[in-house]
Amino acid sequence: MLYERCSFGAMTSNRVGSPLQQPTDATAHEAWRIVVLGDSANNRAHLQRLLLSGSVLPYVFSGAAAEAEALRAIWCTPDAHDGVLLSLRLSDNDALNMLAAFTEPDGITVCAVVVLIGEATTDWGSAAVPAGSQDYVGDAQLSPLVLTRAVEDATARWAMALELRQRQTALDISEQHYRALAAATSDIAYRMSADFSKLLPLDGRGIVSSSQKSQANWTWLAQNLPRDEHARVRREVSKAIANKTHFEMEHQVL
To answer: How far is residue 170's CA from residue 160's CA, in Å, rounded to a whole number?
Structure first.
């Protein structure tokens, strides 16, 4: 299997033939780690040169033909890569199958991916994004600036997707904890309008009457509380609203 690895700093200028600046130990950890997948070593080297001439950031490149061993390396060490340039010109697979190989069950790839569609029609690129890629670039648009922006934008999109997934996971866990707590106590959670005149659908959990529909115009009082509690509850509600405080009181229920 062909799998080369090399480290480069950003070019000191955008002129062809400018020397490459090696990253120092202090900045090496800030280098963008890019994997270039394609069946041509010359093509991979060309893409590396485009990125180096289009950005002031240091890069660490890994390149490989599209073989299973290379994919396993990416999948097993996702934290070692910031992005992948995936070419349609592959030796043993196509880009869409390759995307599926390192896309997680929730549809997010293990790192940011830009698909290089070559001279293929834009249909390939349009299909790559739903398949998991964050961006795509064709040969007609390929330039240092376009490729650099594609990689940077793809990385930003991937980071946003990952953050949204993490937030959703945290929200799901919080919801599970809340439901477990609610099920373990005798308290009843309910939702009201801002002036407490309307009770939204309520699960009474066998303690008070349940309702599948909202109860407006204070009808929830008659449904759930004895008549001699109505005036007292409404007074406390008015007081809480006027003072902008929490409404909290003990009262009887039917």
So the answer is: 15
